[in-house]
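Supplementary Note 2. Why include the ligand at all?

Several targets in our set were suspected to adopt different conformations when bound, so apo predictions alone were not considered sufficient. For every target with a known small-molecule partner we therefore ran a joint prediction. The input for NDP is given below.
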Amino acid sequence: MAAKSQPNIPKAKSLDGVTNDRTASQGQWGRAWEVDWFSLASVIFLLLFAPFIVYYFIMACDQYSCALTGPVVDIVTGHARLWDIWAKTPPITRKAAQLYTLWVTFQVLLYTSLPDFCHKFLPGYVGGIQEGAVTPAGVVNKYQINGLQAWLLTHLLWFANAHLLSWFSPTIIFDNWIPLLWCANILGYAVSTFAMVKGYFFPTSTRDCKFTGNFFYNYMMGVEFNPRIGKWFDFKLFFNGRPGIVAWTLINLSFAAKQRELHGHVTNAMVLVNVLQAIYVIDFFWNETWYLKTIDICHDHFGWYLGWGDCVWLPYLYTLQGLYLVYHPVQLSTPHAVGVLLLGLVGYYIFRVANHQKDLFRRTDGRCLIWGRKPKVIECSYTSADGQRHHSKLLVSGFWGVARHFNYVGDLMGSLAYCLACGGSHLLPYFYIIYMAILLTHRCLRDEHRCASKYGQDWERYTAAVPYRLLPGVF
Ligand code: NDP
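The joint prediction is reproduced in token form.
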């Protein structure tokens, strides 16, 4: 195993990512070294049930018009057996397999073979070759940032097909939705398994691998920090952004096309979901360089959580509102639609401005203005695994002075807006806000635990200056 055969790597427990020598604590950077029983139980639960949860939601739409309780009621009352439901589920098809292979190959080609040209003509856009954050082992990876270009070309092709070429129907994604689910699962499991094997036998950077004695935890949370093939094919950047997030807007467009085909028109709720989620997706690609500094890239290892999650969980569960609206063509009253739009836009504004403030602050090393003033700063320091001492700064102004993760609040407001666009008659479209609330609260706690270990007393000074995590006065 790579980590064991590396002569200059200390034993796992001492190769921690980072320590703060004021506290002499053993810090956390990335996932844990040791698995407590609760984490292990959660990991096994997710490995067993997450694929089933995705199947349940999609099947409930396909067979029960998105009534989440439908399958359970039918089984409990004896109207259906599990086998009946399974028998009605469309299997994988050759067409879906071909489509999916074509799709992923196309995205791989766009990612690896087309250097970014958008940054050459789009003012303010940062693309091309960019550096990521320093890894626990002190490595700084370079990335080819060309996600916006991939998104634009893919959508250009989609619209060219819809309006000129007619190679395929715009409803193609909806029409093959369940067969494509099986393909996405195959890729999700294949890539996670490959990443695990690669981590053990041919890792990209041995010093950035983490092992626990637990197979399930290693599989789920990943071994390698930044697995790569060749110089540029970075697993985390590729799978996080494409094919899942590029697909997000195409999936919504396909759902809108299906709604028109079935009901003769596209409802304002469908337009709102398409527009609000497209803003989020375009923002993601416009700020892909910023994304290199987020937790996904800076701290998470690449395992099933990211590999399978990006291939299956994201495209299938983040698009539930659009899917729901195909079965329930909700037309909102004008005040309701305006309310949803405002909530979505205000949420997006907070999300973007908060993230931008931190990014600007870190890029300029605090030499910037936040809300028109010189920012308040907490100086902090930490040591990476290679023994190097690093200095950093924590921002205490702007949204980062309101709460320690106010960027998550903006995200949650946007998420709620997508759900509210679907009206109030079913629970299914509200899955997203429930999931995001759990995800971001957990992420908040996870991040704070890590920051406390990383920065020690400096982090305590920050929490004293900004006492609330998400909502001032509440949490
Ligand atoms: P953050 O952007 O909040 O990054 C947290 C990191 O920022 C910390 O680990 C720390 O890193 C640094 N930091 C924390 N406080 C400060 C401060 N006061 N000043 C300067 N730096 C600070 O978290 P995420 O990466 O999780 O989220 C990025 C965005 O992505 C969020 O808006 C979130 O809502 C969104 N998101 C969306 C998801 C989705 O599925 N739709 C999933 C996850 C996130 P360091 O070690 O560098 O100090």
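The radius of gyration is 23 Å. The longest helix spans residues 334-363. Comparable summaries for the other entries are listed in the accompanying table.
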